Amino acid sequence: TIIFKGVWQLNWKCFTCKMEQQDITYDKSEYIETASGNKVSRSCVLCGSQNIVLNGKTIVQSGCIIRGDLANINVGRQCLISKGTVITPPFRKLPHGGAFYPIHIGDHIIVGENSIINAQAIGSYVQIGKNCIISRSCVLKDCCKVEDNTVLAPDTVVPPFTVFSGSPGTMTGELPETTQDIMMNATRNFYKHFTAVKPTKS
After folding, report:
1. Is residue 138 exposed (0-12), middle (13-18) or buried (19+ Cβ within 10 Å)?
2. What is the mean pLDDT of the chain?
3. Would you say residue 18 has pLDDT above 70?
4. What is the Cα–Cα distance from 42 to 165, expressed in whole angstroms?
5. pTM here?
6. Rounded distance, CA 103 to CA 89, Å?
7. I need a labelling partner for 154 at 20 to 30 A (CA). Which of 5, 11, 147, 171 fits?
8. In whole angstroms, what is the distance from residue 54 CA to residue 37 CA?
9. Which pLDDT score is estimated for 103?
10. What is the pLDDT of residues 121-133, one digit of tens each?
11. CB 120, CB 139: distance < 8 Å
């Protein structure tokens, strides 16, 4: 069952279409909502905002840092970037120096709190747990999962329908064929129940 109680939790083995849903409220004055439905915390840091694209109905919670000043960052639709997440484009050494490269993040992604993302690319329908480090130039394919506290070594490729955990992260499990539907339902429901409330007057 998926349960929304302030902290996002997903039980892959017990997923059903009948979900216990509870609203997660936030202070309306603390978020900016764009015309395409993105909800971005005013306390997050968007460096080089002109190079950051959020494609709609994506939530960026408080304390996040997104380094668009280094290279373009493209985030898909209906993603959840949880509190304290840092997203930085990957750096590659070149014969005469080095350069930062753009990062593309797919649709229906959930990134847990306080994770660091330095990947080359993240596909769609991916769950990244809390306190993870996705190191330089990693590639996460569609429909995969990275468990809490996992550290992926540089250039790691996480195949579709796999679970990675540990430090360094290695494959420790598999996901069902319904992962795409699970992630679509999870992200849509989180967005639906992430509701604004007006600040109370003292």
Report:
1. buried
2. 88
3. no
4. 32
5. 0.85
6. 6
7. 11
8. 10
9. 95
10. 999 999 999 999 9
11. yes
Condensed to tens digits (0 to 9), the pLDDT of residues 133-151 reads 999 999 999 999 999 999 9
The residue length of the chain stands at 202
Give the pLDDT confidence score for residue 21 in this predicted structure.
Answer: 61
Residue that has been written with the tokens 């590659």 in this structure: 92
Structure tokens at 188: 């849509």
Residue 142: per-residue pLDDT: 97
Handedness of CA 86, 87, 93, 99 (dihedral sign): negative
Q: Report the C-alpha dihedral over residues 165, 167, 169, 173, rounded to 10 degrees.
A: -30
Rounded CA-CA distance 89/137 in Å is 9
Cβ contacts of residue 1 below 8 Å, gap of 6+? 11, 14, 15, 16, 18, 19, 20
Average pLDDT over every residue of 70-79: 96
Supply 202's token pair. Answer: 């003292």
Reference 122, options 149, 98, 145; nearest CA is 145
The encoded tokens of residue 79 equal 């993603």
State how far the alpha carbon of 153 is from the alpha carbons of 95, 110, 132, 135, 138, in Å.
23, 20, 11, 6, 8
